[in-house]
């Protein structure tokens, strides 16, 4: 996967972390954008496509979990990694049930985070590939079946209705 | 007799000698007349006083001269009512009718009325018929009669009299109120016909009457009477002779209503029987209680001792168990010796409390102290004492509770409270430290990546390394604090402990002077949280290395399977742990090192215990320590 095409949204209220993360991610070839709070994050995610978002679980205007739920509804396929402090570990685990793909606990090794990002993006592209391949395969199968039946020339009205439903 | 003689003398009136004799005789008569103990008068047929003796003067206050020659009707010596009686009776006598004595009232000169009984005899006086009247003072008899009557009437007991035929002649108030019959219904009737005495009792009555009449002293009889209203009355009957003037004229019966008394006697008898029963039952209860009590005391889960006269007279099994002494070693030992079995710093207070208790003063309900056992071990105990009676004599009962377990729990609770406090602080501090640390981490990562493109000195590289190491160490501190305070359940998966040991040891940095030996036995897979167990092993390994780092030595890590657990030991040949520190090393924030917070072993203990296992340490100061982790095989 080409990193320069991949964009990451960093949602983090701590300026220093935001800045250092952005620098590192850029150093590693990602496109980045930043949001200081939940509201800004929602705005930006609607305006622009991101492959991945790093979401701080504690934000000044809303709980990270709430932000996660909101974003997950509109962007289910975007990879969402929760960044959490230890005491809110439970929230982090809980967030997995609400659509998060992974979580990291602060303080984390920068290198580990980069590995995790790469892994998750790989999974994402695999999944996309899978979905595309599956869809193609499915369509192919259906078309073949229809053609088979057409050839058989025994289509009843009932079957027609069924077919209409499928297509 | 003298009257007859006098009459005879009066008969012959011849000759001087006879006259002289008569004069003599008159003198004698006068002397005798005046010597009579009762007042005596002689009156003629018309009622004129012919002779009055000295007693009359003394009794009435009238002088002879005031009476002699006067008709009694013209004097004030008797009441008007009595005068009428006297006139009537005088006439009767003069007609020769027989007279029984009768009563009159005499008036004294000073106006007092006195009852007298008149006893008159017809005589001849100077050849003419006359009355010799003897007056008997009956005031004493009257008084006695009145007294008798009032006694009889006031008596709460029934008093009746019957004549010789058994006919009722009198009864008192108590009789009527007791039996419900009126006087009229009873008097004049035969006692057996009234309906009071039950037919079956009649023979008893007759027998009693006969014995009384024979003059025998009889016992009282208990009989049931029928009352008029149909109720039954239990009576105690005394029967005695009734005499008048020495002659038996009938019987007197005194009956006492003993219904109430009998009822009370019966109740009393029942009570006393019941009381006996009660006493018996109570005695049995007490015996049972005593048996139960002694079993209870003997088998009590607390120690019990009884002190009498400053000596132990009783001691139960539990106290022997706690103290390690035998019964023979403790029974009879004096208080001084007992006090020596108490930890030194408590001795004074024990003695003071004992003195106060003996004086009967209040003491705190319980007190905590230490008991020195036979083996010299100091056991924390809680005692409470009370004054009791033992074998009837005052004694002091002391209950001794072994509070080792309680102390342990208290300590555990304190430790947990401390941990909870740590947790709170960690949450606060940790959260705020985490962000700057993350920034430093990110920044150094960036710089490290940029290094190959920059012209920098070796010193700069070293400084960057220092930043890296410091961030790592700060990370570890925060992580340790988090581990210590957070309630973390292990994620149990099947693991081979030997594998975890190998992985851990491969991460441990050693030095040349340190020899790392592993001896791994065959182990079954057990359920364990790999990350947690790895942290435990890492901590133990690092600790071991720390202990031998300066002088060099061996760290031997071995594993083996025991009956119920997997045992992992970390044995070093280092400086060892002193006895007093041994107990504290698993306590958070206890450390003998300059660096570090002293949470490593506390985390080990916490993680191992969260697996249901345990961790122990054996150590000799200066000769190394052995840490043993035991994890249960499920």
What does this structure look like?
The complex is a heterodimer of chains A (167) and B (634). Helix content of chain A is 57%, strand content 15%. By secondary structure, chain A is α/β, with parallel strands linked by helices. Chain A is elongated. Chain A has 6 helices and 5 strands, in the order E-H-E-H-E-H-E-H-E-H-H. The two termini of chain A are 33 Å apart. Chain A has a 5-stranded parallel beta sheet with strand order 2-1-3-4-5, sandwiched between helices. The model of chain A has no long low-confidence stretch (mean pLDDT 82). In chain A, helix 2 (38-47) packs parallel to helix 3 (64-74). By secondary structure, chain B is of the alpha+beta class. Chain B is built from 20 helices and 22 strands. A 5-stranded antiparallel beta sheet of chain B has the order 2-1-5-4-3. Chain B has a 5-stranded antiparallel beta sheet with strand order 7-6-10-9-8. In chain B, strands 12-11-15-14-13 form a 5-stranded antiparallel beta sheet. In chain B, helix 15 (404-450) runs antiparallel to helix 16, helix 17 crosses helix 18 and helix 18 (530-548) runs antiparallel to helix 20. The longest helix of chain B is centred in the last third of the chain and has 47 residues, at 404-450. Mean pLDDT of chain B is 83; it is low at 1-13. The A-B interface holds A 14, 16-17, 19-21, 23-24, 27, 85-87, 89, 106-111 and B 427, 430-431, 434-439, 441-443, 445-446, 449-450, 471, 474-475, 478-479, 482, 486.
């Amino acid at each position: 996967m080409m990193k320069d095409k991949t964009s990451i949204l960093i949602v983090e209220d701590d300026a220093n972390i935001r800045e250092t993360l952005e620098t590192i991610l850029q150093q590693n070839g990602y496109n980045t954008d930043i949001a200081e709070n939940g509201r800004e994050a929602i705005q930006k995610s609607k305006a622009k496509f991101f492959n991945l978002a790093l979401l701080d679980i504690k934000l000044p205007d809303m709980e990270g979990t709430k932000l996660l739920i909101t974003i997950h509804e509109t962007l289910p396929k975007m990879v969402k990694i929760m960044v959490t402090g230890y005491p809110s570990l439970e929230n982090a685990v809980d967030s997995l049930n609400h659509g998060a793909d992974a979580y990291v606990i602060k303080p984390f090794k920068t290198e580990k985070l980069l590995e995790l990002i790469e892994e998750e993006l790989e999974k994402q592209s695999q999944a996309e590939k899978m979905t595309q391949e599956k869809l193609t395969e499915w369509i192919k199968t259906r078309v073949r079946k229809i053609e088979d039946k057409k050839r058989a020339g025994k289509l009843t009205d009932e079957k027609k209705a069924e077919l209409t439903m499928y297509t | 007799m003298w009257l007859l003689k006098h009459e005879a003398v009066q008969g012959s009136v011849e000759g001087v000698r006879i006259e002289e004799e008569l004069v003599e005789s008159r003198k004698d008569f006068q002397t005798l007349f005046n010597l009579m103990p009762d007042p005596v008068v002689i009156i003629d047929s018309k009622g004129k006083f012919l002779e009055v003796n000295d007693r009359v003067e003394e009794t009435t206050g009238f002088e002879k001269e005031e009476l002699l020659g006067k008709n009694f009707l013209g004097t004030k010596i008797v009441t008007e009512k009595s005068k009428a009686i006297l006139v009537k009776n005088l006439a009767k006598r003069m007609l020769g009718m027989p007279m029984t004595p009768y009563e009159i009232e005499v008036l004294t000169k000073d106006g007092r009325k006195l009852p007298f009984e008149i006893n008159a005899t017809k005589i001849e006086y100077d050849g003419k018929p006359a009355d010799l009247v003897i007056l008997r003072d009956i005031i004493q008899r009257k008084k006695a009669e009145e007294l008798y009557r009032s006694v009889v009437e006031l008596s709460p007991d029934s008093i009746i009299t019957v004549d010789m035929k058994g006919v009722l002649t009198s009864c008192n108030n108590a009789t009527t109120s007791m039996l419900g019959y009126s006087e009229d219904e009873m008097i004049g009737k035969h006692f057996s016909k009234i309906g009071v005495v039950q037919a079956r009792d009649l023979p008893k009555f007759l027998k009693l009457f006969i014995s009384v009449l024979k003059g025998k002293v009889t016992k009282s009889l208990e009989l049931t009477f029928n009352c008029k209203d149909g109720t039954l009355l239990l009576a105690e009957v005394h029967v005695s002779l009734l005499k008048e003037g020495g002659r038996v004229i009938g019987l007197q019966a005194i009956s006492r209503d003993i219904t109430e008394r009998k009822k009370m006697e019966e109740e009393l008898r029942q009570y006393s029987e019941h009381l006996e029963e009660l006493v018996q039952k109570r005695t049995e209860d007490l015996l049972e209680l005593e048996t139960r009590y002694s079993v209870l005391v003997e088998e009590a889960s607390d120690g019990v001792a009884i002190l009498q006269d400053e000596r132990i007279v009783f001691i139960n099994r539990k106290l022997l168990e706690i103290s390690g002494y035998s019964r023979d070693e403790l029974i009879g030992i004096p208080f001084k010796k007992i006090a020596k079995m108490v930890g030194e710093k408590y001795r004074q207070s024990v003695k003071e409390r004992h003195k106060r208790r003996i004086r009967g003063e209040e003491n705190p309900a319980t007190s905590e102290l230490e008991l020195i056992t036979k083996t010299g071990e100091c056991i924390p105990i809680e005692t409470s004492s009370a004054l009791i009676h033992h074998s009837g004599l005052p004694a002091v009962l002391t209950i001794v509770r072994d509070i080792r377990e309680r102390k342990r729990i208290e300590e555990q609770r304190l430790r947990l409270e401390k941990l909870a406090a740590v947790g709170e602080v960690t949450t606060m501090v940790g959260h705020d430290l985490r962000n700057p640390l993350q920034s430093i981490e990110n920044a150094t990562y960036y710089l490290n990546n940029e290094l190959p493109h920059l012209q920098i000195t070796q010193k700069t590289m070293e400084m960057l390394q220092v930043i890296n190491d410091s961030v790592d160490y700060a990370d570890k501190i925060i992580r340790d604090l988090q581990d210590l305070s957070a309630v973390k359940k292990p994620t149990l998966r099947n693991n081979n402990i030997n594998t975890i040991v190998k992985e851990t040891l491969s991460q441990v940095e050693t030095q040349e002077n340190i020899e790392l030996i592993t001896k791994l036995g065959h182990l079954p897979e057990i359920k364990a949280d790999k990350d947690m167990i790895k942290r435990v092993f890492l901590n133990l390994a690092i600790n071991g290395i720390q202990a031998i780092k300066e002088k060099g030595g061996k760290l031997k890590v071995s594993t083996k399977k025991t009956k119920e657990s997997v045992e992992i030991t970390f044995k070093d040949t280092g400086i060892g742990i002193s006895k007093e520190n041994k107990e504290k090393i698993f306590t958070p924030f206890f450390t003998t090192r300059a660096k570090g917070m002293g949470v490593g072993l506390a985390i080990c203990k916490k993680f191992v215990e969260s697996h249901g296992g345990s961790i122990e340490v054996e150590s000799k100061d200066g000769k190394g320590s052995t840490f043993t982790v035991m994890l249960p095989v499920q």
